[in-house]
Amino acid sequence: METSAQEATEGRVKDAILIAGPTASGKSALALGLAERLGGVIVNTDSMQGYSILNVLTARPTQAELARAPHYLYGHVHPSSLYSTGAWLRDVVRLLEDGIFAGARPIFVGGTGLYFRALAEGISEMPEIPVAVRERWRRELKERGAPELHERLASRDAAMAARLKRSDGQRIVRALEVLDASGRSMLDWQAARGKPLIDRDSARFLLVDTERSELIARIDRRFDRMIDLGAMEEVKQLAALDLDPALPAMKAIGVPELQAAVAGEITLEEAAEKAKIATRQYSKRQTTWFRNQFGAEWQKCSNDPRMPKL
Q1: DSSP state for residue 159 in the 8-state scheme
Q2: Among 103, 118, 146, 72, which Cα is nearest to 4's?
Q3: 3-state secondary structure of 107
Q4: CATH 1.10.20.140 residue ranges for the chain
Q5: What are the average pLDDT values for consecutive 10-residue runs of the chain, which has 310 residues?
Q6: CATH 3.40.50.300 domain residues, the chain
Q7: How far is CA 12 from CA 106, 189, 223, 245, in A?
């Protein structure tokens, strides 16, 4: 299972195990069991678990779990950052180039479908955005609002603007900053498809399939544990940073709800119930996305690490 220099040059990860599933389905426990059984390294494939501070609220592995197998790309991004699929894929490439997968089975686990698609199908290259350009458009969004920025995008790149809702500030800003940084439409960049990072022939694709009523029960129990383990303190730390509420980390499930409780707008019990409902809705969207977007190579499995025959 050793990754050769030639494979690294070709940009392919061999013998990868991809484990996807809705939130609270037990996929992280499955990944950990397989890593111990097969001598693997675990790579976070969930957009929210990459952010620092939110250890509890994003259900990141505990210190005890981290000690049982090597884990990468957890909590390494500051909440003030916009962490994209492209940025995550570049981080995985760096792991490959650093030899992290040499002699170890790469296990990618998470609930972000676009990350798995990027691994298995490739992703369009995007230009690096200078800090000044990024900050300018974030400021413009805050001061002018998404509809006005949509009009400005339409005057410069009508085709891209036509694909975006006038209210979708984050994507409008992304299109504008790519245009400014490169002089090319985001559509041009998206047209050039990248190569898969994994070797599909040697990869295993696992989709954790948990019965809906069990999943809902797991979601509810998990959020209660999050409160007990210090989720409120994490939200207070995040609030102290005075970040733009439109940033992805600020919209992580549980953050807006618990912020409202901290502000005294609702009770903790009401906040917990709202967060549980939001998590259930999110898990349903994930399940629908996996069903519609994943191909036949994805094998449904339980969260029991003894079950997949690998």
Answers
A1: H
A2: 103
A3: strand
A4: 131-191
A5: 40 91 96 95 98 97 97 97 91 96 96 96 85 92 94 96 94 94 91 86 96 97 98 97 92 97 97 98 97 95 78
A6: 5-125+194-210+291-301
A7: 12, 22, 37, 37
